[in-house]
Fold N-acetylmuramoyl-L-alanine amidase.
Amino acid sequence: MTELGNKRSKPRSRTRRAVLFGGLGVVAAGAVAGRDEIGRAWWLIPGVAKPRKEGELDHAGASWTSASPANWRMADRPDDYRVDRIVVHVTQGSFEGSVKAFQNPFHRASAHYMVRGDGHVEQLVREMDVAFHAANRSMNERSIGIEHVGFVDRPQDFTDAMYAASARLAADVCRRYDIPVDRTHLVGHSEVPGADHTDPGPHWDWDRYIRLVREALAAGPS
Ligand SMILES: [Zn+2]
């Protein structure tokens, strides 16, 4: 389950992005520019934002539904933030309900992917962007969030097809960002510092998951 990533997190050090944006803000304010103009001017800074197209995907096996832009933050990962973690979640709700929640601008949370019991993978936020899923700003900035549709107290929700699809997805992410496949780099939401969520819970089979991700990684790109 995801939740707001901004509230309890500590202030982070100024990044290249923050410095650029801050500088631009001063210039734009001097030119009596409105908030919207600052936002638009952001796109003009060369080399910062990668080109992006609605519906473009990062994982070959995924479908696309866009989460509301209020529920994630535009970024340019891995150039501005190194991606070296995967955070495993369980939705505590249905696929339809969870997708709707991520589309709701007042939900203030999202994840990059949602994996269903039948092995379907939906992508909702681009990997270059920061999804609000771990309730920890620095963890959000460094991680890919993968939701699994089900409930933490229902082990039957974690199907073979779900494990297999999620492992292929995680292996793809680990391959592209050179992330080691171990329990330091693949963590549960409940293990994120400051987390008050319990997902993925005691029925998530970590040994099996790690083994499947390693197998998928060894098998090469699909
Ligand atoms: Zn969660």
User: Anything to note?
Assistant: Residues 1-2, 89, 189, 197, 199 surround zinc ion (CB under 6 Å).
